Amino acid sequence: MNILVCIKQVPGSSEVKVDPDTGLLIRDGDNVKMNPYDLFALETALRLKKEKGGEITVLSMGPQAAKAVIEEAFAMGADHGALLSDRRFGGADVLATSYALSQGIKALGDFDLILCGKQTTDGDTAQVGPEISEYLEIPAVANVTKIREVTDETMTVEMDMPNQLEVVEVAFPCLLTVEKDIYQPRLPSYVLKKATADRKIPIYSLDDMDDQDENNYGLSGSPTQVKKIFPPETNTTQTMLEGTAEEQAKKLTTTLADLKLI
Amino acid sequence: MARLKVHQDKIDDPEALVAVCPFGSMSVKDGNVVIDDSCRMCLNCVNTGPKGAVEFIVEKKKKPLKKERWQGVAVYVAQVDGEIHPVTYELIGKAKELAGKLHQPVYALLIGSQVQAAAKELQHYGIDKIFVYDDPKLARFAIEPYTAVFERFIKQNKPNSILVGATTVGRQLAPRVAARMRTGLTADTTILDMDAKSTDLSQIRPAFGGNIIAHIVTPNNRPQMATVRYKVMDAAPRQEEISGEIVEKKINEKKLVSNEKIIDIIPKPAEQSIESADVLVAAGRGVKSKAELDQLKELANLLGGQLAGTRPLVENGWIDVRQQIGLSGRTVRPKLIICVGISGAIQFIAGMDNADNIVAINNDPKATIFKSAHYCLVGDQSDIIPQLIADIKARKGE
Amino acid sequence: MAYKTFTKEDYTAILDLINDNDRVLYQDAIQEEYGHDELGGTESLPDVVVLAASTADVSKVMTYAYENNIPVTARGAGTGLVGACVPIEHGILIDISKMDQILELDEDNLTLTVQPGVLLMTIGDYTAEHDLFFPPDPGEKSATIAGNIATNAGGMRAVKYGVTRDFVRELEVVLPTGKVVTFGGKVVKNSSGLDLKDLIIGSEGILGIITKAVLKLLPAPKKVISLLVPFPTLRQAIDTVPEIVRSENVPIAIEFMEQDVILDAEEYLGKKFPDHSADAYLLLRFDGNTDEEVEKAYQPVADLCLKQGAVDVFISDTQEREDSIWKARSAFLEAIKGSTTDMDELDTVVPRSKVNEMVAYFPEVSKEQGIRIKSFGHAGDGNLHAYMLKDDLSEAEFQKRMTKTMELVYEKAHNLGGLVSGEHGIGYAKKRYLKETMDPVNLELMRGIKKTFDPKNILNPNKVFDV
């Protein structure tokens, strides 16, 4: 089975703050890591490979430094990797990111299965996986909590639905986004890290894409624009709910209802 | 293509300009300021750097968008087997408000099989047009046919904005539709507003795990799409009288082909772990009897949550170690935690102080727990809890 | 020695001294937790609890107790495991946990001055904000600093940095007479007479009550990564430890763990450990200022482990990965507790070269005595934690088998050149084992010191050794 896993480099901690005066993101620039949700996708790929054979390719998009997450994937057992890196991809929103990734996937070859993590810890949208599947015109199943069976033509998975789990059989090629905790991700192996230290990571730029229209990438290809970022209001107020037990209970019930917790 | 051009002659202090970039994408090379490919186009250098030092250049060759052709605010009706998910009513409430500012209609898009009753129910919520795509092939959600129907709806009706509930279905359907329409989609918005003049939807959402809030617009594309989580917006009230038109639509069978097959529908395993619960009722040493503990369990059930507790309750065998909150137990971050008879030892506080809403009930006004609580009830829990259970039941109409 | 029976008049007198109703607990107001510590094997309630707010409070109460011959016990967060803070003779319990202020950070001398009730986690958070750190790292982060000093707590960074004793510069102590004295100073070197500060460290509250401490800090390392090293057998794992210790770049921690304890922790936390395929693991932790520096430090050690037969070497370099390993490691005690009905613990320490012999002895004695034993611990410093589990045994049978097992294990440790306790202390629970394994001359010297400090034997009587 030929599997592609999308991975992203994200800030080492999501404990970023916005400077209330300048509106700038304050974050530790050099502390980065692989998006924790992508580890579940990669682990899923590694288990499938162990069971069914085949090869795993990881694809990332970002600055040259994002090679680190591809090397990390090698140390976990991925076979190949590629990085989409081009200033013209910069400032991409979900749509432009998904488009560039789908173009990158097409440039890399044919895959039976594309795996994505549920979301990233920086963007938090959970939208890139489904959008890639649209551009690749393949079926997609999101919120996969379990893989039941894999045959040559199909795989059967459990999908988390609002009130139930649906057991879905999907034909290859397809895209799955997997839930957190589908499998406990393994740690990178020192042995593999050493063995893959010299493995080449090809860099793909816009010139390697099938669609070379700059307007479909980066900021130009992004319908959404961030007008402003600001820190969240924190709930620091304290309210005393006083009175008799009955009055207190009434006040609390009203409060909970106002908070939509009832 | 949009790009940034650095005008070196307008820079007095290169290092100062470099420091402005929140992503560390600028550096000084051979005395010139350069931008590398980690640039996120946040435009901070343009806006806060020395005037004119960095220029934002947009070379447009797209046709200008005729925004006035896109009218109305649509709501995707989340339903399973004809049962409407309550997030739908919240979206309708918001859609009416947004459409009201534009003096445009509110639409509902209902996709499913044998959903006539659901369509009729929607007529109680003041929607102008309810578009119904009813076909046995649409009985259960499948990404390809649902996207095809959605696409057809958009092309025929050209709504200005579309709101989709961030249910497990909405979170995969909305992005697929947005990609097909090549338009913007903002996930998990918490505040939505409409600018009557530009007809742009103002979308506010948290990012970075809630540590940052972003204000997002989709100025040059239509429809504008946003997903909204359940229990964020206020639901539209149900009216006795019926209004709005049900528009039955047909779609070509060929469009309803799916490469996915639903083999089985199984119940979800009950959520066991307190870490993933939205609501927790936590019991402490002040809970003196099994009967009181049972009441708290009932309260937790009423609120759709789980029972948790502190270490002494684990030690006397009343709760399982897996329900223990604290440094030596589990760390939780629920939307609501009600702490009953808990003094507030640091071991416990450290395990829960990131909860969105902390309620403390304790008869000792000096209990440390009150320092961390948002809502404080000083009093005897054995008086307050039964009353609270009765009130919540009454409100839920049980 | 007979103590004065505590009366209502004593209560009134102490209340007068403290002059705050909320801080003097009497009779029904005394919560039952004041009668035991974390492990709870030793139980005895005080007659009165004083929540001290200042050194003066402690001194006043101590003076009163001295004049009236009433026993006094000091208590911090009550996270001890050997009953050291349990008032065996009842009397007055001085709870110092409300004296929880950080008094001064001296960035020139790299010292932190704290009140005794400051929690270890508070110190951790506070120093982290200033890019500094206090290296001693016991698992129990909600313990007070005074409790840590009183037991000379070790923790998981001892291999590289040492123990609490190595990071205390100065102590303010209230003596059993009520007198307030200062031992040590904000100095790096000290050759000025007998080191009384070092006598207080590890004295488990029998010589004086710590009311202020000046701690030594270090600049905080910016990067920390762990290596989880699976081995086919525990023996191979432990045999590798001396090799690692001899290597140039010493890890901050060397822990060993076996598969069954990992499985217990998975069950307890409801979370999977990153790997549980091997029988035994070494867990190594390295720190430094950059990724490159840490990588350079661990590489030779990783190669060494592979040479010694390790299956692989797994790298934990992110918060999530560290959490998945160390949260489980921190939960071992609770997890083992959760797997049985009751238990007691052993905290022996042996020379590093003897760790293997000691570890091999646990299954042996477990089989022989018919009692389940689980162990894990600080392989790098020879401090082994073993837990004897009650399971389905009757209380009497459990006590019988456990006592016998303890005797055998302590004897074994003694024969290997080890000691009764590495970091938990002797307290009340381990008194007889200290007596059985310690040279009588040493014990006599200890008694003499106790007598000099506390002629009336009113401060934490019946602890560590009998006078």
From TrEMBL, chain A:
SUPFAM superfamilies: Adenine nucleotide alpha hydrolases-like. GO terms for molecular function: electron transfer activity. It comes from the Bacteria. InterPro entries: ETF_a/b_N, ETF_b, ETF_beta_N, Rossmann-like_a/b/a_fold. Transmembrane segments: none annotated. It holds the Pfam family ETF. Residues 22-213 form the Electron transfer flavoprotein alpha/beta-subunit N-terminal domain. CDD domains: ETF_beta. This is Electron transfer flavoprotein small subunit. It comes from Loigolactobacillus rennini.
TrEMBL record, chain B:
FAD binds at R285, T310, R311, Q324, I325, G326, L327, S328, N362. Residues 73-260 form the Electron transfer flavoprotein alpha/beta-subunit N-terminal domain. This is Electron transfer flavoprotein subunit alpha. Its cofactor is FAD. GO terms for molecular function: electron transfer activity; flavin adenine dinucleotide binding. InterPro entries: DHS-like_NAD/FAD-binding_dom, ETF_a/b_N, ETF_a/FixB, ETF_alpha_N, ETF_asu_C, Rossmann-like_a/b/a_fold. SMART domains: ETF. The keyword Transport does not apply. It comes from Loigolactobacillus rennini DSM 20253. The keyword Ligase does not apply.
TrEMBL record, chain C:
Residues 42-220 form the FAD-binding PCMH-type domain. Its cofactor is FAD. It holds the Pfam family FAD_binding_4. Keywords: FAD, Flavoprotein, Oxidoreductase. One of its GO terms (molecular function) is FAD binding. InterPro entries: FAD-bd_oxidored_4_C, FAD-bd_PCMH, FAD-bd_PCMH-like_sf, FAD-bd_PCMH_sub1, FAD-bd_PCMH_sub2, FAD-linked_Oxase-like_C, FAD-linked_OxidoTrans_Type4, Oxid_FAD_bind_N. This is Glycolate oxidase. It comes from Loigolactobacillus rennini DSM 20253.
